[in-house]
Each structure stands twice: as structure tokens, then as C-alpha cells.
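Q: How would the C-alpha cells look for this protein?
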Amino acid sequence: MTTTTDLHRGTASPHRFPRKPAVGRPVLFAVMLSIAALLLLAVLIAGPSLPIPLMIAAAVGALGLVVLSWTVAGPRL
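A: Here is the predicted structure in C-alpha cell form.
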């Protein structure tokens, strides 16, 4: 005769930290990524006529906008 115990039956697993919702702000996320994509497109089109420091600053700004959009409005992992 064996006895089995189910520790996980009927009980929710306790979390140390409350879980964030998996959804961010999808409209804001899409708008910010679109702005970053348009900025990068402008850098690629006007790149040869722009000075190098301005091109680098615009590319870094677009990258910063992508990072900002991910942290502010992106999906929560």
C-alpha cells in the first residue's frame, strides 16, 4: 500500500513578486518604433550629404528611441 501526495493539486504557486501583465502599450510602442524607423530611413537617405557627427548622433538617437519605447511601452517579460 502506497500513499501519494500531490503538493501542487488545488494550490496556486506562490510568487515572491507580483507578476506584471504581459501586455504593454502596443499603440505607443508601434508609434515610437515607427518614428525611430523613419529617423533611420532619413539618415540612410540623407547620409552622404550630412556630416559624420550628425549622422552618428541621429543613429544613436534612433537607437535610444527604440530602447525607450521598449522600456516604456513594450511587452512585459
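Residues 24 and 75 are 5 Å apart (CA to CA).

The chain has a mean pLDDT of 76.

Upvote if useful.
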